[in-house]
Amino acid sequence: MASLALVAMLAVPASAQDVVARIGTTPQRAAMPGVAGPFNPSPARAALGRQAFFDARLSEPAGTSCASCHHPAKAFSGNHGSRIGVPLGSRPGLLGVRNTPSALYTAYVPPLLFYQDDDAPAPTPFGGLFADGRADDVPALVRHPLLDPNEMHNRSLDAVAAKLCGAPYADGLKREFGPKALDTTAGAIAALGKTMESFLQSREMAPFSSRYDAWVQGKATFSPQELRGLKLFKNPDKGNCASCHKFNETSSNPARSMFTDYGFDAIGVPRNRALPATRDAKYFDTGLCATASANKWPDSGQWCGYFRTPSLRNVAVRERWMHNGVFTTLRDAVAFYATRSIEPERWYRKGELFDDLPERYRGNVNAATLPYNRRKGMQPALDDDEIDAIVAFLRTLTDAPWAGRQ
User: Fold this and answer.
1) What is the dihedral of CA 77, 81, 86, 89, to 10 degrees?
2) Which of 23, 104, 356, 391 is the residue whose CA sits 20 to 30 A from 318?
3) How far from the centroid of its chain's Cα atoms is residue 347's Cα?
4) Of 118 and 28, which is predicted with more confidence?
5) Which of the following CATH numbers is that of domain 208-406: 1.10.760.10, 1.20.1050.10, 3.40.30.10, 3.90.1300.10?
6) How far is CA 311 from CA 172, 238, 245, in A?
7) How many CB atoms lie within 10 A of CB 237?
């Protein structure tokens, strides 16, 4: 877990020159990347990316677009009509493996890197897109859902390129990238990635219009309960939420309040037994360790159970919570943090701690940091009223277009 020194480092730009080592193939940097943006994407490219984002022809069979799961009415999250915590794919009966994250603010996520804070005993990973950090940028990201058999199910990038050639915005892609841009698969996929990147950098996808943003600017007030929730959120002896979900309430730059440090943590969420995959007792989603193995990190097993800390912006608009969609309410998600180890029977079947990880990896789960460091018989770090106050504060992070949907 990163220390508060990380906040100061966020203002320091990163470059190729600050790579001090490599852990496997992943760079270790002397400083955390600076705050991303401000972005100024080409309006033409962003418009093309938006068309592609909503293009249901890009799945196999046709009918599922990026927006099917990242639905604009749900703050660009949602699970494509699924009610069990992970999204429906393009083929009947098939499901993705993780709860759909919001696509909002994607442009602010840094590439995967290692960084060693002054207080940290060893370098730790940050960044990367997806919950397991496996893609460094949007052009790399878009290939995954397009080719995933449980999601958009295209057989190959060649098949995607052929669909782009027949898309109603094909002429727009040629105008933007050249008349031969779609002549090769590589050219077509590169054009798609660049337009998607521009769309995700657009103001629509980073509105910064929450009541929290207005409050920082002195244009809104919080209720007593919301102010109490904010204090509990920050208090290292109570919620301790801000140790990972970092923000800067004194900065006029809203990008300094992304409510994440982009780090990874293993919190041991309960198994979502509604997922068909979990009928196989040997099935587990172990998160970051797959990326660790692919990037040749030493002892990749030490990262099993870790998932990237998501931004809490628009968290109250989610359909489900946690990477496996196990929780149906935001309050349950907050209460879990406070009572996980005190009341294991409340969260885990038969009280078996960390049951969504193989036993050999359960020691990876964070049991040292408050509020996780409680034991049965101890008082929780947060009582019911305090949990309600934190939830009230989290609702202030909802951007204006979705404020009525919480």
Assistant:
1) -100
2) 356
3) 23
4) 28
5) 1.10.760.10
6) 33, 20, 7
7) 9
Residue 86's identity, in one-letter code, is: V
> For the segment 89-133, what is each residue's pLDDT rounded down to a tens digit?
999 999 999 999 999 999 999 999 999 998 889 999 999 999 999
pLDDT tens-digit map of 138-159: 999 999 999 999 999 999 999 9
Band of pLDDT at residue 15, cut at 50, 70 and 90: low
Tokens for 118, please give them.
Answer: 């002054």
Give me the architecture of the 1-206 domain, per CATH. Orthogonal Bundle (1.10)
| 113's tokens | 């890197």
Residue 332 token pair: 């349950």
